[in-house]
From TrEMBL:
It is found in: Membrane. Gene3D superfamilies: Spore Coat Polysaccharide Biosynthesis Protein SpsA, Chain A. Keywords: Glycosyltransferase, Manganese, Membrane, Metal-binding, Signal-anchor, Transferase, Transmembrane, Transmembrane helix. One of its GO terms (cellular component) is Golgi apparatus. UDP-N-acetyl-alpha-D-galactosamine binds at F75, A76, V77, Y80, D166, V167, D168. Belongs to the glycosyltransferase 6 family. This is Uncharacterized protein. Mn(2+) binds at D166, D168. SUPFAM superfamilies: Nucleotide-diphospho-sugar transferases. It comes from Canis lupus familiaris (Dog). Pfam families: Glyco_transf_6 (PF03414). Its cofactor is Mn(2+). Binds 1 Mn(2+) ion per subunit.
């Protein structure tokens, strides 16, 4: 078993297996990082996708012949429905996999509050009612349970690739084929330049999400992850297992599902990483400028929006 044991962590990474089901285009055909850019490859040879590293034309041509459908799950519970959902979906309609088939899976705790949104061609929405967890921490963490159930029940038969995203964000640039992969992780905008020693991994040894100081590769943002449906199923199941075991021991990891996701990607290296351009925070990172932001954080308002318990 790969769950935590200090001895096992040392040097024995489980690398990804080649998923023969994946319709992904071969890396050497479309990924051309320039030498002047930093951080375009990981130590396990996964690409880190930035604007300027990929040949969009080659990708479009390839996927014109190999038709795909891309899924996108988003949760909206409580006040997050009225505050974020419409903007997230209408901006996704415009920018997420433009020109390709997309199914947006909305998981909502009150169907009657689902906003009416006129979609473009090739886009479908499927709405599912879910039960509302009492604490915001559980709303966030139990997404892993709901995602895994829906992947098992239907998503796996409907899409070739799947993304799972937070609702409190907005697309503003083309979020395209370059992001597709077997297992895709998002670099967190606050920590992508940081030494892994400094990032907020769970440091409690008793937690399933524990990563010892000095280990770890990057700090990944749980607001975006994806891959093939089978891979996403594995991510969601493993994270849920960690979350539930922690609950049994009355532990809650410091950044909830994000801590468990970081543990997962530490043990099972993602095959593709997305630069912070794919999930940017204009609020805190305003000293830095990237001209090609594709998705950014909406303004947070925890005090008014989160369920209070
Ligand atoms: C950088 C950072 O601070 N990250 C943490 C923070 O992310 P966030 O502050 O981005 O968390 P969040 O409030 O966006 O919650 C995550 C997602 O759960 C859904 N949702 C959550 C609450 C709610 O009342 N209704 C609802 O629909 C919604 O899709 C939302 O986008 O908090 C999360 C827990 O919430 C995780 O611990 C993240 O690791
Ligand atoms: Mn969020």
């Amino acid at each position: 078993q790969h769950r935590f044991s200090t001895k096992k962590l040392q040097g024995t990474y489980r690398c990804w297996s080649v998923d023969t089901q994946s319709k992904e285009l071969k890396l050497s055909d479309w990924f051309f990082p320039s030498k002047s850019m930093n951080l375009t490859n990981t130590s396990w040879s996964a690409p880190i996708v930035w604007e300027g590293t990929f040949d969009e034309e080659v990708l479009e041509k390839y996927y014109a012949k190999h038709k795909i459908t891309v899924g996108l799950t988003v949760f909206a519970v409580g006040r997050y429905i009225d505050h974020y959902l419409k903007k997230f979906i209408s901006s996704a309609d415009m920018f997420f996999m433009a020109g390709h088939k997309v199914i947006i899976y909305v998981l909502i705790d009150d169907l009657s509050r689902m906003p009416w949104i006129q979609l473009s061609r090739l886009r479908t929405i499927k709405v599912f009612e879910i039960k509302r967890e009492k604490r915001w921490q559980d709303i966030s963490m139990m997404r892993m349970k709901t995602i895994s159930e829906h992947v098992v029940n239907h998503i796996q038969y409907e899409v070739d690739f799947l993304f799972c995203m937070d609702v409190d964000q907005i697309f503003i640039g083309k979020y395209g084929l370059e992001t597709l992969g077997e297992s895709v992780a998002q670099l967190h905008a606050y920590w992508y330049k940081e030494d892994p020693k400094e990032v907020p991994y769970e440091r409690n040894e008793s937690s399933e999400a524990y990563i010892p100081i000095g280990m770890g590769d990057f700090y990944y943002h749980a607001a975006v992850f994806g891959g093939t449906p089978i891979q996403v199923l594995d991510i969601a199941r493993e994270c849920l297992k960690g979350i539930m075991n922690d609950k049994k021991n009355s532990i809650e990891a410091v950044w909830h599902d994000e801590s468990h996701l970081n543990k997962y990607f530490f043990l099972h290296k993602p095959t593709k990483l997305l630069s912070p351009e794919y999930c940017w925070d204009y609020g805190r990172m305003n000293g830095l400028y990237y001209p090609n932001i594709k998705l950014y954080w909406a303004v947070k308002d925890y005090k008014n929006l989160r369920v209070i318990t």
